[in-house]
Amino acid sequence: MNRTRASENLDPARAGGDPAHAAPTAVDQRRTAGEAGFRSYVGDYIGKLRSGELGSLPGVIGVVLLWTVFQSLHQQFLSPRNLSNLSVDIVGTGMIALGIAFVLLLGEVDLSVGSVSGLTAAVFAVLNVSNGLPEWLAIIAAMLVGAAIGAVQGFFSARVGVPAFVVTLAGLLAWNGLMLYVLGASGTINLDEQGLIHALTSYYFHDAAVAYGLAALSGAAFFLASYRDTRRRRAAGVLSRPLGVIAVRTGAVVLVAFAAAYVLNRFQGLPLALLIFLAFVVGLDFVLRRTFYGRKIFSIGGGAEAARRAGINVVWLRISAFMVSGTLAAVGGLFLASRVAAVGQTSGSSILLINAVTAAVIGGVSLFGGRGTTWSVLLGMLVIQSIASGMVLLSIPTPMQYVITAGVLLAAVVLDSLTRHSQKAHGRA
Question: pTM score, two decimals?
Fold first, then answer.
């Protein structure tokens, strides 16, 4: 089964396999249903749900239920102010979760991202605030540190063969200790409130046209990308989505985008942090789904041995995924530091790791590898941050917040495991 999954994500003819066997794996159930029409497409989608391929559906249901419950318990939950703050709060942890998604797609896990985010933020603060290095150079240095840490951990896991769980668990302790050493005796370094990093989470585009323009651009880009994909599939003789499905999906995207723009404009406008986060989501989604690199990541997650026999450099791909995780952990750490305008001993706490992993899994990234998108992370972060925001509004004690967050993580993992078993039972895994 694992070899079949790998072949679905990588063209064997291009990977060094037998071209004669490439065609049978190129057509999946979704494409077959698309050629038959809208009704058949919907029927196929329902069939996939029954077989355990839930995709992002749990995340969507989670957001709707949480927003309904919290709004009924506190009338300010869906206020423009709270939703705007929520859209900024998701960015720091969301960046870290995007990096974790690359590792999870391989079927591995990176437990060190929280500590890496804290260490890289401390490196930035020391270089910029304590030593006067220009912000842009300090930012590059922090990101290079994150990438180097990812490369080291990836080397021990992929080349030496040490389980990623053990390597990154050791990293969790080591990088946290190094962060405390870098911060020194003071333990806290305040950032320049007039600097670039502080502006990441404090700057808003107050002109309403910016948010609405981005919403319109998103809808147009989604339609054009979907339509182009359909034409390319038809030209290649591959079955595709019907135009009716594309229209419905585009309508949903436009509705959500303009509703978000309306709400944000009622407070202070479009946050710069959210715009940057969305740019990362779109860019990394393109990398994963539209490039050979991304397809190889999925292939390894579907079956490492099958991917290796198809000619993929599994060792390098695994190391690179950990480097992506470390780099995005550094980016996330800078956003988290920007939010509080300081770096301290509590930066990179364990709850940060839990939230990042939970967000990815809730959104639809499988712990077993080979399934998930960057949009899954965005959806999962909405769920996690909605819970956090709602608990704060309801004045739930911090200890209970930890208990609830742990319960959500367990529920997400259990659901992922159950869907995995269901897919195996239906021959889809």
Answer: 0.85
